DNA sequence: TAGATTGTTAATCGATTAACAATC
DNA sequence: TAGATTGTTAATCGATTAACAATC
């Protein structure tokens, strides 16, 4: 399914969550309608880009009126899959894994549910992080299958990450949120979203030392 | 300074840390030379892109030979500013702030030094995270000035982030590594590198639900 | 209706890839 | 030298912006 439509460029996809965030703020402020022009000024992008982006998914606006904030928020949520069950596990219960488990916004604002953390460290197994148990990594296969988990955050050291990613996929995981500083090579029906913190920090450092007067 | 050269596109800059990472692996494996073709196969990009990217900064290669791994690694490190002192502070000593302080790779592999964490929470003030003290946020201004800190990781809740960012800049911070889910509007000589985890997760979710057979 | 604003086509801009002369 | 591979120009591709007819 979804195979007949022309595929959407990843540049567009990456902008959707930001639209969603701004619409959430508008909604919270009881603003009911917004034009692409107004939104473009708030977001500091072109109105043209907003209209082009949204029209990849359908005509959500109305000529002469603009967009209904509530409706557009809901529709973008659906496009992003936030209307579906998004149960996830966190593989690696170290500092970063625990920090992710603690971050309530994923659940409260977007509906993601962390079902369990997994680790090999006996000192961690059995503890709870905000009500979520750390389980032995040996139990992971059955857990994934029993709960039909599709999303795994991978917060293991980089030397363990590729092998674990391979197994996760064998057990049914379809999307890996990868925090290990390594590239994972997986079947093409599996999605990898990398969060390479060190690379992000290096980009920052470059810009600090090379900033031009005409920044964007 | 740096104002006369044509500015480098951010697409190129964002690829540099990945080149750096691959070169680090080659170096660790005692590989002394590599051609753009070989590297392109490992990294799954085009050789043309590698040569174009590198030539923004100078001719690091040699016809008929390729690139010297050690030299190229060093040069890219310099471009990224890793040869400079990169002292940083972490503002917000919650789970994420502590997780960053704990992540030794920033220091061991790239030379970043976390000088202190800051928080308002009396329960956190005084504790140490991997030898780094959590200080009262009231001491931050003098600390930044005394240690000439230019880089701050901002791991506060989103409602506190914009005001704090403004102050950090007043006190001399030139680069903010922003983990708060909000856009910061700061003077253009200040760099902001966003790590918007929720947005990254939503992108993953979109792709899980909409993956095509012909993935890239 | 008149005014506003979308949806969409066309034009522009920038980034990627291909090609090849230069040269080690 | 002959072969390999860069540095760089030219061609292509894709993404962004501008423009405007459609229409609420």
TrEMBL record, chains A, B:
InterPro entries: CoA-bd, NAD(P)-bd_dom_sf, Rex_DNA-bd_C_dom, Tscrpt_rep_Rex, WH-like_DNA-bd_sf, WH_DNA-bd_sf
Ranges for domain CoA-binding: 81-183
Signal sequence interval, chain numbering: none
Record's keyword annotation contains Transcription: yes
Residues that hold NAD(+) according to the record: 92-97
DNA-binding region (UniProt annotation): 18-57
Classification via Pfam families: CoA_binding, Put_DNA-bind_N
Keyword set, alphabetical order: Cytoplasm, DNA-binding, NAD, Repressor, Transcription, Transcription regulation
Primary location class: cytoplasm
Gene Ontology BP term (one): response to redox state
Gene Ontology MF annotations: DNA binding; DNA-binding transcription factor activity
GO cellular component: cytoplasm
Keyword set includes Transferase: no
Subcellular location: Cytoplasm
Family: Belongs to the transcriptional regulatory Rex family.
Subunit (UniProt): Homodimer.
Record function comment: Modulates transcription in response to changes in cellular NADH/NAD(+) redox state.
NCBIfam families membership: PRK05472.1-3, PRK05472.1-4, PRK05472.2-3, PRK05472.2-4, PRK05472.2-5
Protein name per Swiss-Prot or TrEMBL: Redox-sensing transcriptional repressor Rex
Species annotation: Anaerostipes butyraticus
Lineage: Bacteria, Bacillati, Bacillota, Clostridia, Lachnospirales
The encoding gene: rex
């Amino acid at each position: 399914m979804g195979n007949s439509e022309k595929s959407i460029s990843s540049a567009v996809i990456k902008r959707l969550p930001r639209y969603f965030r701004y619409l959430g703020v508008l909604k919270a402020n009881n603003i009911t309608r917004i034009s692409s022009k107004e939104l473009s000024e708030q977001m500091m992008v072109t109105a043209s880009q907003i209209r082009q982006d949204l029209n990849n998914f359908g005509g959500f606006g109305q000529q002469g009126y603009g967009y209904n904030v509530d409706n557009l928020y809901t529709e973008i949520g659906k496009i992003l899959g936030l209307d579906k069950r998004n149960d996830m596990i966190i593989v690696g219960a170290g500092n970063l894994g625990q920090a992710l488990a603690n971050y309530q916004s994923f659940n409260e604002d977007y509906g993601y549910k962390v079902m369990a953390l997994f680790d090999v460290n006996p000192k961690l197994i059995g503890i709870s992080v905000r009500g979520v148990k750390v389980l032995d990594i040996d139990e992971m296969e059955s857990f994934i299958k029993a709960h039909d988990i599709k999303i795994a955050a991978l917060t293991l050291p980089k030397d363990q990450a590729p092998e674990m990613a391979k197994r996760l996929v064998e057990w049914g995981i379809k999307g890996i949120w990868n925090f290990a500083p390594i590239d994972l090579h997986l079947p093409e029906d599996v999605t990898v979203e990398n969060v390479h913190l060190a690379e992000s920090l290096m980009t920052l450092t470059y810009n600090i030392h090379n900033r031009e007067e005409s920044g964007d």
